[in-house]
Amino acid sequence: MRIGELSSRTGISVRMLRYYEERGLLAPQRAASGYRCYDEADVDRAALVSSLIRSGLTTKLIIPLLPDGPAPAEAAEAAEAAEAGDGGRRPDPELTDLFTAELARLEAKIACMTLSRDAVRRHLARLAVPAGGA
Amino acid sequence: MRIGELSSRTGISVRMLRYYEERGLLAPQRAASGYRCYDEADVDRAALVSSLIRSGLTTKLIIPLLPDGPAPAEAAEAAEAAEAGDGGRRPDPELTDLFTAELARLEAKIACMTLSRDAVRRHLARLAVPAGGA
DNA sequence: CGTGTAAGGAATTCTGACACG
DNA sequence: CGTGTAAGGAATTCTGACACG
């Protein structure tokens, strides 16, 4: 499918879909016309990326998070860079720290919002059944 | 306690504590000197307000959410306004809608961040135990 | 950094019409 | 009838840039 369809199916703006590609998060085929061609797997992948971005993750952190690894173009670059140093997959302690910090940030935020959600829920329940209160 | 102590105990800036008061979310006593005097209950109340604000709720929405109702000063104003109309507690359908929308927003955001948190957790686990992967 | 927008051009698709065998 | 084609407009997409918080 082309970018417009992916956009309406995912609710992600065309602008952002292009941005994801620029950052190596998505790598659609190209038609002879130059138009991007996305497949079904890209629908899920784009939705996941969007969710991660809305959660506050940066694209740099998202790349290694994606299930099938970085998008082809980026994978090639990464492989090149890796060959320059060693050939294997070393965890990169700096990145690990970033993920650890991110996890803590997400957990704190979720806790905060869960508390708020419960407060709003309780209030709505109170409004609906004004039995016990003053 | 005075504002500095409350601030360090809650991690909320002095600026924000004064703001909460300005918006009717907190109503500390005043010493003869004019200094604000908070009691123990204000520690929890301030923390709750802070959590709600960090979750994106507006102060207008937070006021009716607080367990003991609006802070004294605001309560007086509200009572006045209520007397002008009727004497009872009517739910105010508009506000109810706002809360319903807020609940939906919070639930969506929590779902989004929970998904992201899980992705980060999985990734960290993968980094720690690179047994099964490629 | 993530996102919107205005700009100008290129490729695509649409419809209704005409032509052909 | 099924099919190709030229015509004109509308919708879509492309890239690179600027703006914003």
Describe, in plain words, how this protein is organized in 3D.
The structure is a homodimer of 134-residue chains. By secondary structure, the first copy, chain A, is mainly alpha-helical. Chain A has six helices and two strands, in the order H-H-E-E-H-H-H-H. Chain A has a two-stranded antiparallel sheet with strand order 1-2. In chain A, strand 1 (29-30) and strand 2 form a beta hairpin. Chain A is flat and about 70 Å long. In chain A, 24% of the residues are buried. The interface between A and B is medium-sized, with 34 and 33 residues. The first copy, chain A, binds a DNA duplex (21 and 21 nucleotides) through helix 2.
Labels describing this entry:
two-stranded antiparallel ribbon; homodimer; 2 strands; mainly alpha; DNA-binding; 6 helices
Q: Could you write a compact summary of the structure shown?
A:
Two copies of one chain form a homodimer. The first copy, chain A, is an all-alpha fold. The first copy, chain A, has six helices and two strands.
Helix-strand blueprint:
Two copies of one chain form a homodimer.
Chain A: H1 3-10, H2 14-22, E1 29-30, E2 36-37, H3 40-54, H4 59-62, H5 72-84, H6 93-128
Antiparallel strand pairs in A: 1-2
Chain A binds a DNA duplex (21 and 21 nucleotides) through residues 2-4, 13-16, 18-19, 31-36, 53, 58-59.
